[in-house]
Write a structure and sequence with these properties.
Elements lengths: L6 H4 L1 H19 L2 H14 L18 H13 L9 E3 L7 H17 L3 H15 L1 E19 L7 H4 L6 E9 L4 E17 L5 E3 L13 E9 H7 L3 H4 L34 E11 L9 E7 L14 E2 L5 E5 L12 H28 L1 E4 L6 H5 L15 E4 L5 H19 L8 H5 L4 H11 L1 H28 L5 E5 L2 E5 L10 E3 L5 H23 L9 H14 L15 H100 L3 H17 L1
Antiparallel strand pairs: 1-15, 2-4, 2-10, 3-4, 5-6, 6-7, 7-8, 8-9, 11-12, 13-14
Helix pairs in contact: 3-10, 5-15, 6-15, 10-12, 16-17, 18-19
C-alpha cells in the first residue's frame, strides 16, 4: 500500500469520501449493539461468570450447559479437521483431473500445514457456536524481522550506500558517529506469505444492511485494529500522522463488554511514546473518488482519527479484487447475514438450571441444619444464624426454640433438571450422555450403541455441514484466488511419492470445491462401509472382465482414495499409484507386453498337439515318399545291373561265338591242306580233322 500523498489532505472530494466512510464505520459499529450484548451474554455463560442474581446468603453455583455443550460439539468436530486434505477442487474436464488434484494439495498445504489451519478452523467453529457468525481472514501478511545493525569504520560518503533498501529489506540510519565512524542501521526484513486467521467478532464491523451469507458483494466491512505507533510507522504511515493520532486504551468503555478479556488491559503505562496504542480501521469499502463515475471500486483503506496532518486516510487506498473475509454460521437463517448461535439456544436452559441447582443446594443445607422459630431475647441468635456441626444453641428455656418443618424438594428438582437436560439435548444435539464409555457399554449391542449415538449426533452433523459449506468453502476459494493472483512463485507439494512444484500463476479459476469435513463419526463409519463394499464390487467386476465397460482402474483408484480420506488417513495418495500417472502407464505397457508374450506362449502350447499331428502326418508322407523313391532307385539299380549282366553275357556270348566262328574258319582251312598231304603220307590226318570239326559243330549247336 502506497504512502499517503499530499493530495489526500487537500482534495475536497477525497476529504468528503473519508469523512463519510468514517461515519459509516462508526454507524456500523454502533448498530451492532444487540449483537454485542449477545456476545457478552454468550461469553459470560461460557465462562460461568456471575449472572447478577447472586445473593450472599444463597448458593452461587453456575450451571455449565453452554460450556459443556460447546466443548462436546467441538470434541466431535475436531476429528473432521485433523486431516491435511480438507477440501478438493472440482476439475473442469477429464484432462484437468490431475491439475485439480495438484491445486487441492497445494492450497491444503498452505492453509492447513503452513498456517496451522487445524487450530484456525476450530477457532472459527467455536466463534460460530458462541457468536452467531464466524469470520476468517485470508490475506497476504508480512512477516517482519526487525533488528539494529552496527557497522564500524564507515566514512561519511559510505553512509548512503549502507542505508539503501531493496525488495523485502528496508534500512534506515539510526546514528553515525564521525569520531568513532560507527553507524547504527535499523533493518526491517519483510517476507510475504498467505495467512489465514479467525477474526475476533468483537472487532469486526459490517454494513448493517448487508443480508447475504457471503461478503463478496458487501459494501463495507473490516476490522478494528489496535496498533502501536511503532507498528503503524513500520507499516509505512508517515510519522507526522502517527504522532498526532490519539492514544487509546484497548477494550475501553462499551467495547469491553464485547470482549472475553479482564479489566486490566493497559493498566501499565507504555514504556515510551512509540508504544502508545492507537485505534485504526482496516476497511474494505466500495466507493469512487470521481462523482461522475458510473461504478464503484472496492478499496482497501486504513483509516484513523482526523488530525492536522491527515483527514483520515493513513495510507493511500488501494483497489483490490475481493473482500478477504469468509463468513459462516452453524445455524443459518434465511435472507439474513447473521445466523443463530448455539449459545442463544441454551441461554434459558442454563439460567433455569442455575436457579434450580441453587435452590437444591439451599434445600439440602436447610434440611441438614434445620429451620427454627426463636423467641426474641430467649435464644442466642448468633448460634442459630451461624450454625456449626455439634455446636450447641444457647437458650433460656426449652420453649424458646421451635423447629419449623422443611420439605425436601430434591426429587422434584432432580426431575426438573432431567427435563431441562433433555431440552438441552434437543436444542444442541451433542450426545453428552453418550460421551462416557460406561454409557456406551450400557447399550445391548454395538449396533444399538451406534444407532443411538448416530441419532443424537444428527444436530452436530447439521451444524458441521453448515460451517463447512459456508465458512470452510469460502476460505479455500479465497485461498485459491489469492495464490493465483500472488507473486510468491511455485509451491512444493507432495503428490504420491514425489515432490512436485506447481505455479499458482498458471492455475485456472475454480468455481466449485468439495469440502471433505462435516461428517460425524457415525456418518464416517457409514460412508466408509459403503465405499469399502463398492470397492469390493469394483474389484469383482474387473476380475469378471468388465474393465472399461462397467468399472475402470481410475474409478477404483478414486474410490480407494475417498475411502482412506473418510477413514481419516492423511495423504492417501502416498499409498497408491494413480492409474493416469506416467509410472502406472509404463507398468501397464510392461504388463501388456508380458501378457502378450504369455498369450503367445499359451497359444503355442495349445497348438502343439496339432503341430505334432501335422508333423506325424508329414513324417508318414515323407517316409512313404522315401520308401517309394528307394524302391524305384533299387528297381532301377537292379534293372541296370541286370541289363549290365545281360549285356556282359551277350558280349561274352558274342565273343565266344566269334571265337568259335574264327576257330571254325581256321580249322576248315587247315583240314583241307592237311588232308591232301596226309593221305600222301599216312592217310590219318584227314580223319582226325574231320572228327574235330564235327565235334566242335555239335558243341556249338548244343
Amino acid at each position: 500500500m502506497a504512502v499517503l500523498g499530499k493530495s489526500r489532505n487537500t482534495n475536497p472530494r477525497e476529504r468528503d469520501v473519508v469523512t463519510r466512510l468514517r461515519h459509516q464505520i462508526e454507524a456500523a459499529i454502533n448498530s451492532s449493539t444487540n449483537v454485542n450484548q449477545q456476545r457478552a451474554t454468550a461469553w459470560r455463560q461460557f465462562a460461568m461468570e456471575p449472572n447478577g442474581t447472586e445473593d450472599g446468603a444463597r448458593s452461587a453455583i453456575q450451571s455449565a450447559d453452554v460450556n459443556t455443550m460447546v466443548s462436546a460439539i467441538m470434541a466431535q468436530m475436531v476429528i473432521s479437521f485433523s486431516t491435511d486434505t480438507v477440501v478438493s477442487y472440482e476439475a473442469n474436464s477429464a484432462e484437468d483431473e490431475q491439475a485439480a488434484a495438484m491445486e487441492s494439495r497445494a492450497v491444503n498445504r498452505v492453509v492447513v500445514e503452513q498456517n496451522g489451519g487445524y487450530q484456525r478452523l476450530l477457532d472459527a467453529a467455536q466463534n460460530a457456536l458462541l457468536y452467531r457468525t464466524a469470520y476468517v481472514k485470508v490475506w497476504w501478511a508480512d512477516d517482519i524481522d526487525q533488528f539494529v545493525l552496527t557497522v564500524e569504520n564507515v566514512e561519511r560518503e559510505e553512509v548512503p550506500i549502507l542505508v539503501e533498501s531493496e525488495v523485502g529489506t528496508q534500512r534506515r540510519l539510526v546514528s553515525w558517529n564521525p569520531e568513532t565512524k560507527k553507524a547504527r542501521i535499523d533493518v526491517t526484513k519483510t517476507n510475504r506469505r498467505l495467512s489465514v486467521a479467525a477474526v475476533d467478532n468483537g472487532l469486526f464491523f459490517i454494513d448493517p444492511d448487508h443480508d447475504e451469507k457471503e461478503l463478496a458483494s458487501c459494501n463495507l466491512c473490516g476490522e478494528i485494529l489496535y496498533k502501536s505507533r511503532d507498528e503503524l510507522s513500520r507499516m509505512g504511515v508517515p510519522w507526522a500522522i502517527v504522532k498526532e493520532l490519539p492514544a487509546v486504551q484497548k477494550w475501553s468503555q462499551e467495547q469491553k463488554t464485547n470482549r472475553r478479556r479482564g479489566d486490566r488491559w493497559n493498566a501499565v503505562e507504555p514504556i515510551g511514546f512509540q508504544n502508545d496504542i492507537c485505534r485504526v480501521f482496516e476497511a474494505y469499502a466500495r466507493f469512487s473518488f470521481d462523482e461522475d463515475a458510473d461504478r464503484a471500486t472496492l478499496y482497501k483503506c486504513f483509516i484513523g482519527d482526523k488530525t492536522k496532518a491527515s483527514f483520515g486516510f493513513l495510507l493511500e487506498p488501494v483497489p483490490v479484487s475481493r473482500v478477504p473475509y469468509a463468513a459462516g454460521s452453524a445455524f443459518p437463517i434465511a435472507n439474513r447475514h447473521q445466523g443463530e448461535s448455539l449459545a442463544e439456544k441454551l441461554y434459558s436452559i442454563q439460567e433455569a438450571k442455575t436457579e434450580l441447582m441453587r435452590q437444591w443446594l439451599d434445600n439440602v443445607q436447610v434440611n441438614s441444619i434445620g429451620r427454627y422459630g426463636a423467641v426474641v431475647g430467649q435464644v442466642e441468635i448468633a448460634d442459630i444464624m451461624t450454625p456449626k456441626a455439634g455446636q450447641p444453641i444457647r437458650m433460656k428455656s426449652p420453649s424458646a426454640l421451635l423447629p419449623i418443618p422443611v420439605n425436601d424438594v430434591g426429587a422434584s428438582i432432580g426431575q426438573a433438571l432431567m427435563y431441562l437436560d433433555q431440552q438441552r439435548e434437543e436444542r444442541g444435539g451433542a450426545a453428552l450422555d453418550m460421551v462416557g464409555s460406561e454409557q456406551q457399554l450400557a447399550q445391548e449391542t454395538a449396533a444399538g450403541t451406534e444407532r443411538v449415538y448416530a441419532s443424537k449426533e444428527l444436530m452436530v452433523s447439521y451444524m458441521m455441514r453448515n460451517i463447512s459449506e459456508t465458512l470452510v468453502k469460502q476460505i479455500y476459494m479465497l485461498g485459491h484466488a489469492e495464490l493465483r493472483d500472488g507473486e510468491n512463485g511455485p509451491v512444493s507439494v507432495k503428490y504420491g511419492e514425489k515432490w512436485i512444484e506447481v505455479d499458482p500463476a498458471t492455475w485456472p479459476a475454480r468455481a466449485h470445491c468439495n469440502v471433505k469435513v462435516g461428517y460425524s463419526m457415525g456418518e464416517r463409519r457409514q460412508i466408509a462401509n459403503t465405499l469399502f463394499s463398492f470397492i469390493q464390487l469394483q474389484t469383482t467386476a474387473m476380475q469378471a472382465g468388465l474393465d472399461g465397460q462397467l468399472v475402470s482402474k481410475q474409478g477404483l483408484y478414486k474410490s480407494t482414495v475417498d475411502w482412506l480420506n473418510v477413514s481419516l488417513v492423511d495423504n492417501p495418495e502416498a499409498y497408491l499409484i494413480d492409474p493416469s500417472s506416467e509410472q502406472a502407464q509404463q507398468a501397464a505397457q510392461q504388463a501388456a507386453a508380458m501378457a502378450q508374450q504369455q498369450a503367445q506362449a499359451q497359444q503355442e502350447l495349445l497348438a502343439l498337439p496339432e503341430r505334432i499331428k501335422a508333423a506325424s502326418a508329414q513324417y508318414k508322407v515323407d517316409a512313404d515318399t522315401l520308401t517309394t523313391m528307394f524302391k524305384a532307385v533299387l528297381e532301377a539299380t537292379v534293372k541296370a545291373n541286370t541289363d549290365e549282366v545281360q549285356g556282359n553275357v551277350e558280349v561274352i556270348r558274342a565273343a565266344t561265338e566269334a571265337k568259335v566262328a574264327q576257330a571254325t574258319l581256321t580249322g576248315s582251312a587247315d583240314g583241307a591242306g592237311e588232308g591232301n598231304g596226309g593221305r600222301g603220307a599216312n592217310g590219318s590226318g584227314g580223319k582226325s580233322r574231320a572228327n574235330g570239326t564235327k565235334s566242335g559243330t555239335r558243341d556249338s549247336a548244343n
